[in-house]
Write a structure and sequence with these properties.
alpha/beta, GMP Synthetase, Chain A, domain 3, Helicase, Ruva Protein, domain 3, 3-stranded mixed beta sheet, binds adenosine-5'-triphosphate, DNA replication origin binding, nucleotide-binding, cytoplasm, lipid binding, ATP binding
Length: about 450
């Protein structure tokens, strides 16, 4: 990629991350080369590589790809260093190609992603238990283990944890972790270089095969064919397979029916979206870890709770937010306060705001006050119905972008002036009635989860 194109990529990133982030973190980056899906970037120091990789890695990859580069990961090297050493990547380094470096198929698990660092809560306890069972390395009882769930919920982390644990318990085991992208890439390269026998040999000689993000096989018919044969060969030899995807096997689009049905033969477990308790648990665990990396950085009471409430999209973003806060607080020598968090994370907080619907608000409020939804929307006006109705109107105004007439229509075709009156009433009561203020706060929090 020519330097002027890299400059254009940086300009695009500036619009996304804002001027001050750009100046501190993006401007100093120098793109040295692009090869085999890896963008090699020079940075002034290792800390910066680590931080930029974790915080802006996804965005850099996204903007490089928009300019036509086919990048899957970033590799950072300190400008003067003789040996180039990856210092950070948007995903765990091994996820994107360690097997390429070690063609024998062995993997080097990323030591950050172990069972010890995986926080367990209701949404992921089943997936965790299944992963633990496979990691014990006993006789294969379910094959494959199929883990699925939305972006950034810990699938890759669990796969690395399994690999890590197996490598400790049974160092001689040949464990291969590979992303589906890498599988495709290797397959195409093998075809091109007429090395299909080597390819088959390598994949069929492993003891444990993990393929991450299998949804990327969609539409790749000949790769699917080869995957199907590899899969069967390993299952026939009673070798463990662990597969992950962003959705259940039956919902994989453009993946052949026979693969989908094979994937359902073992144990299928999903990682549910995180709940508040799990997010808070993860933040506490990460905070402990960061304490040793950034000694002296204090976090004010309530900040972790605030982040756990507001950033509910996925763990990667949650983690990125905390990293950014610690790095920033340590650079400027300040405590992580609520203000600093709001300032420093305004982009993340904006995009994480959950879109709440009028219907959800009405349902939540009627549950809270134990009234029937039909009463809330109906014409009757006794105080025990009118107040919750007005509270719901206030929440609709403050938590959605709907106009007053639109809100009115959804409240039994009421006029917009009635809605305005209700909202004003609650606004007044909020200042004078602490019970109402508490209810509003609680309902808002519950709706954001
Ligand atoms: N329960 C958890 N405890 C601790 N860290 C977690 C947990 N869940 C996710 N993470 C962290 O969140 C980040 C994203 O997780 P991971 O890469 O495993 O997600 P993924 O489900 O594989 O996402 P993708 O769909 O993008 O492949 C990682 O840094 C991981 O360590």
């Amino acid at each position: 990629m020519a330097q002027h194109e890299w400059r254009a990529v940086k300009d695009d990133i500036r619009s996304a991350v804002g001027a001050s982030n750009y100046k501190n973190w993006i401007e100093p980056l120098v793109l040295s080369s692009l090869s085999e899906g890896v963008a090699h970037i020079q940075v002034p120091n290792a800390f910066m590589g680590d931080y930029v990789g974790k915080t802006f890695g996804d965005q850099i990859i996204y903007h490089l790809n928009r300019k036509g580069a086919q990048v899957q990961r970033l590799s950072f090297a300190v400008a003067d260093a003789v040996a180039q050493k990856p210092a950070g990547s948007a995903k765990p380094a091994v996820a994107n190609g360690t097997p390429a470096a070690k063609p024998s198929g062995e993997i080097q698990p990323d030591h950050r992603f172990t069972f010890d660092t995986f926080v367990v809560g209701k949404p992921n306890e089943l997936a965790h238990a299944a992963a633990k069972r496979v990691a014990e390395g006993g006789p294969v009882t379910f094959n494959p283990l199929f883990l699925y769930g939305g972006v950034g919920l810990g699938k890759t982390h669990l796969m690395h944890a399994i690999a890590h644990e197996l490598s400790v318990r049974q160092p001689d085991l040949n464990v291969l972790y590979i992303s589906a992208d890498q599988f495709i890439y290797r397959f195409i390269s093998a075809l091109r270089d007429r090395k299909m026998m080597d390819f088959k040999q390598m994949f069929r000689s492993v003891d444990v095969l993990m393929v991450d993000d299998i949804q990327f096989l969609a539409g790749k018919e000949s790769t699917q064919e080869e995957f199907f044969h590899t899969f069967n060969a390993l299952v026939d030899q009673n070798k463990q397979l662990i597969i992950s995807a962003d959705r259940a096997p039956g919902e994989l689009k453009d993946v052949s029916e026979r693969i989908r049905s094979r994937l359902q033969c073992g144990l299928v477990v999903d990682l549910h979206p995180t709940d508040y308790e799990l997010r808070l648990g993860i933040l506490h665990a990460k905070q402990e870890m960061y304490r040793s990396i950034y000694p002296g950085v204090e976090v004010a009471t309530g900040v972790l709770e605030f982040l756990a409430h507001r950033i509910s999209s996925n763990v990667r973003i949650l983690e990125g937010a905390l990293t950014r806060l610690f790095a920033f607080a340590s650079l400027v020598g300040r405590e992580v306060t609520m203000e600093l968090a709001q300032d420093c994370l305004s982009d993340i907080l904006r995009s994480s705001d959950r879109k709440v619907t009028i219907e959800e608000i009405q349902r939540k409020v009627s549950e809270h006050y134990a009234i029937r939804l039909s009463d809330m929307l109906g014409p009757r006006r006794p105080r025990n119905l009118a107040r919750p109705r007005q509270i719901a109107m206030w929440l609709c105004k403050n938590m959605t972008s709907r106009s007053l007439p639109e809100i009115g229509r959804k409240f039994g075709k009421r006029d917009h002036t009635t809605i305005m009156h209700g909202i004003r009433k609650i606004e007044e009561l909020r200042q004078t009635d602490s019970q109402i203020a508490d209810d509003l706060e609680m309902l808002q929090r519950a709706l954001q989860e």
